[in-house]
Amino acid sequence: MAKAIRLSERGGPEVLKWEQVEVADPQAHEVLLHQTAVGVNFADVYLRTGLYPQPLPSGIGSEAAGVVAAVGRKVRGIKPGDHMVYSLPSPGAYAEQRVLAADKLLKIPAGVSDEQAAAVLLKGLTCWFLLRQTYKVRRGDVLLLQAAAGGVGLIMSQWARALGAKVIGVVSTEEKARLARRNGCNQVLLGYHDLPARVRKLNRGQGVDVVYDGVGKDTLFASLDSLRPRGLMVSFGNASGAAPAFSPLELAKRGSLYFTRTGAADYLGQPEARRAGARELFSLIRRKLVRVHIGQRYPLAEAAQAQRDLEARRTIGSTVLIP
User: Can you give the pTM of this predicted structure?
Assistant: First the structure.
């Protein structure tokens, strides 16, 4: 037996319950992981509220790291004591222990801690497909990054800078602006007021090549208006709520823009893709080209408070729960 956060109804953070759960022995191709750090993401909030549908009752959370406690008889290449990390679409990471298919786990390399791996994997893989697949960022590109001091933003700005891009970040407070500047942003703008004009002022009168927007409702048109002709708007999150519907003519009016709304499963659904992204991510961390900023730690039992703070934008960088 172990404890986990369980979800039996939709609602606010108060619906997250700390409960006793049964943990089975690992079957032939499975691993029992004693979890040491759990990552917190906005996707967890969307599952709790019902924006991302999921049958109930359910676990919650998509990524965690820990130490292998036992392996099934047909598992190869993983042994008790190994430090592993995972990021999965099936919820249940907010738990002390979890049984998982061995092929879903990634080995944490030397030089990367369990907390770093849990804090960075989903966000880092998101950055990988956004920067390397959705739009292949090249040296000299100029990109606009909304919520540049968030968990994804801090990783993405450093990664983009390492690729030779110029990064203009947008944040909501002076404290976050200082953090964004220390983590890859060449220039930082405070707030959304008159954003397109301020972006062009920083970019020799031109719009940017690509906008990465994980905020959603509050920033959609400001992001579109900040692009150069035929630039790309990448929407990948809904921190302020789902972005509103709009006519395709809005893209033509702004210079024949491109628009995409990404889904991680379409980029990370295959194990080969996850492994490729993780290799590049962990290499950047080990080479200190990407630093993992863990701004908050909470006991796992206090997951509700962690989500309250995340929704209220009181968090900076990544958040981890400690079992």
Answer: 0.84
